[in-house]
Amino acid sequence: MAAGLKLDDAVNRRLVEAVYGKFREDKRARRPSSFKDIRELFWENVVVKFGQSAVDEDYRSLFDFSVTEAMRREFAVEDETAQRRGDRPEGEDSHPRRMREIVDRASRQSEPFLTLNNPDADGTPIKFWTIHPTVKSDINNDTLYQDMFIVRPGDNPIEKPEFSPYELICVNLRVNLELRHLAKLNIGSGETDSIHERAEGRLADAYNGMVTKMIAARRGAGPGSEFTPHVDKTWHLPGVLPEIFMELDAKISGDSAAAFVIAMLHGLLRRDFEYSEPQVRFTTRGRGMRGAMEEVIGQSHDPWQMYKDFSRNTPVVHAAKEFWDFTISRNADSLTEHSSYRHLTDPANIIELFKLVGNRADEPENRDDAAIACLQAWMGLLQSLAAAQKPTLTPRGHRMEMQKLVDDLGPSLLEALRAEEYGPEMERIFDRVYSTAYDNVFAQ
Question: Which of 29, 36, 210, 315 is deepest in the core (most CB within 10 A)?
Answer without folding.
Answer: 315
